[in-house]
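Quick question, first post here. What does this chain look like in 3D?
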Amino acid sequence: MMSLLPQEAHRQALCRRANNESISKLHKIFRGTMRQTPPLKLHVPEPSGRPGHASDFSYLQLSEAGEVRKPELDISYKENTDLAFSLIRILDDEGRAVGPWADPPIDPELLRSGMQAMIKTRLFDARMLIAQRQKKISFYMQCLGEEAIGTGQALALEDGDMCFPSYRQQNILIAKGVPLVDMMCQLYSNERDPLKGRQLPVMYSMREKGFFSISGNLATQFVQAVGWAMASAIKGDTKIASAWIGDGATAAADFQTALTFAHVYQAPVVLNVINNQWAISTFQALAGGEHTTFAARGLGSGIVSVRADGNDLLTVIAVSRWAIDRARNNLGPTLIEWVSYRAGPHSTSDDPSKYRPADDWTRFPLGDPIERLKKYLIREGHWSEEEHQATQKAYEAEVMAAQKEAESYGSLLTGQTASVATMFEDVYAQMPWHLRRQRQQLGV
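> Answer (accepted):
Ran it through. Tokens below.
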């Protein structure tokens, strides 16, 4: 190995010392800068109100009724930003239908049907909540305060379209005219339970009504709906899918997976996010709704996305029709964030008084969907206070009669449930020998 000349070795030594001194100076400067930076802090979102405090909904990004534009069906998500941060509203505080989304007007008979479905849903929920407290069923979940959302979209969909619901869309079934006895038997898991006791109460499955089996795991219905919609497109069918999820479940990975597939393959699907402000017991901000909107999530995935008033049946029908028309005309998916409020507990296992102000529901700025529609219909001469009261009484009697019939087939309290023999059915096309033997041993 050749050795360096003395002059060259001296030059390189000087360079190394200069470099080391420069690096040392930089380290000192950097350390000084770091000493001036405050310690890092983790941000944990907090709700606007807790028990014992006044309700505060100032965080909601509301728009005046009628001020949000109605775009053409073929709008691009790049032209869609304002609709993801504003709020589409048709009914104003005086009960008037205003703005571009109110045109064309909705048939009054359709709105009357919607009113009847919402009233029946609320009465159904109330009776089933009592039944759970009486230990006749194990579990129940109301859609109190959210009746307009499922009802309105059910009225906008066509026969053959498929809904992939979450566990608070019983209003879809009621709006579609499903007999209350059939729904109650599923809740009671009795001998007339169409699902033979294999699903938790409220997890209905009615394919003939376009109501896909409810998944116990949250967010899976979004992936299922996108896949079903893709299959419909592959077959060259004309039917679309409608998916449902809550604000809390948008934090699940399946939500983003569904958005990716819906965007890439332009699936004919309506993606409904119900922002009712609370997940099981956590505020919607913990799912990412504090400094942005859930509709904005769709924009990031290249999907046309809008926010809409979920407590106004007129808005729900109008926006649902617009999104459904986009899907049916091969214009791709639409994500809709429905702003609403969960008026009751998350479920019968929940006590909301432990984590939110007791008066939140009465102070929610978008009001009660039934009262708002009632005000509009009376104003327009399509309803009356007398008819409202008569309708409630008639449906109270109908719900109670259905409950009496359903309980005649058994309930959790009586122990008259689905036969144990059903556990061997609907698994294999031909029952294998070992299951036949087990069934014989049980004597069923």
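The mean pLDDT is 92.
The first strand starts at residue 162 and ends at 164.
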